[in-house]
Amino acid sequence: MKKLLGLTALALMAVLCSGLPALAHFQMIYTPEAALEKGGEIPLKLVFTHPFEAGHTMDMGQPKEFFAVHKGKKTDLLATLKPIEWTSLTNSGKAFETTYNMRGMGDWIFVVNPAPYLEPSEGAYIQQITKVVVNAGGLPTDWDAELGLPAEIVPLDKPYALWTGNVFRGVVKGQGKPVPFAEVEVEYLNHPPVPGKNEFQKEALATAPQDAFVTMTIKADENGVFTFGIPKAGWWGFAALGVGPDDKFEGKENSQDAVIWVKAVDMK
Ligand SMILES: [Cu+2]
Fold it and tell me: Scanning 31, 102, 209, 248, which has its CA 20 to 30 A from the CA of 111?
């Protein structure tokens, strides 16, 4: 019986997550550019997916919070979110979009605190509190701010000013305290969204020789600091797993993760 259940669970996983447990879930806040010449209106897409393979996209529930921080001031953007359908290479899932008008110069940190997502293959919830930093005009204002999120990656390098080959460093924090030896999953946005559409492009930018290169798992050091050398231009996601305090939701396990997205550009 146990064996049968195990097999059913495996079959479910095969359907839901392409059968590859190595694929990590990543909450995305996607916008095409991280470093803008000047402000203006930018699109923001909230998608919960597996970014390297652009495979199964999970249905997002109504987020608990969505806001921007600029020059230390928080602006609630939850009411601006519109539900959309996001098309992956294998399915479509419920996602959200909005636009934001960046007035002036500096950094804007966009944060989503999503509803916990029940992952059927694991019988547990996943809640990825996610940040992305967008800059206008090169003036640094907020990028290194710690926002006091229950699970947070505080960047030590500007997430929008990275050449390909630079390192990105961050401090993994849970309730404001560094998390020693935190496990951090790293994935490349290998099928960038088609401009103006709510779908991933079909063509992959990179090919992984095997699963360990799809989701790269690295560890923070004893101070909760991780370092990753960026091998390719584009968006990279970092997810520190289970570092937040809310480890239960509706009687099941909840992995409250901290996610940050950074963008590297080629030097040419
Ligand atoms: Cu999944």
Answer: 248
* Ligand 1 centroid distance, CA of 27 (Å): 11
Residue 11 has a pLDDT of: 46
What's the whole-model pTM score?
Answer: 0.92
Of 265, 187, 186, give the one whose Cα is nearest residue 227. Answer: 186
Q: Residue 252's domain spans which residues?
A: 22-265
Q: How many domains does the chain have?
A: 1
- 93 CA to centre of ligand 1 in angstroms: 11
CATH number for the domain that contains residue 124: 2.60.40.1930
Asked, for residue 222, whether it belongs to a domain, the answer is yes
Quick one: pLDDT band at residue 237, thresholds 50, 70, 90? Answer: very high
> Which of 50, 43, 44 has the alpha carbon at shortest distance from 16?
50
Among 95, 91, 71, which Cα is nearest to 82's?
A: 95
Backbone angles phi, psi at 253, to 5 degrees: -65, 145
Nearest to 234 by CA among 197, 203, 196: 203
